[in-house]
Amino acid sequence: MEIHITKEKIKGWIYRLKKPFLKPKQEEIVEVEEKEEKEDKEIIMNQTHGEGEVSKEQKIVAESIAQMCIKWGQDLLADQIRIDYGMKNVNRFDLKDSIFYQFAKKNNIHISQQGWVREGDQMYPIINVNHDIRELDKFITDVLTNDKKLSNR
To answer: Which of 48, 82, 121, 143 has the highest local Cβ count within 10 Å?
Structure first.
């Protein structure tokens, strides 16, 4: 099988992949408090592909782009491309194993997963909690009254 890839196609791929990582213009920068830098930690909000959805041809192109990214000093981007296209495996923490998730589910608190945070080769879900404040107050009360049960877990 022959794949026809032009320089323009590769440049387009790189541009779309690097776009979220481009530096903002000076006038777009807003001063904020300094954040504590956390080594080897990355937040991944949007996964581009589900498992099994990537063709062999897409993996070939993605690997070519990853190699170019490494050449240009964009190792983090290359690593993320390899993860997104199924060329590098990472361990994903199962949200259902979280004690927070279990208590929230028990109290009918709605949780949705928004993305992942990665530390080394381990990924943890980023969640969103939405509910009426009265229900959240009941949830916190339940957690606090069951504190001894939690510590025995």
So the answer is: 82
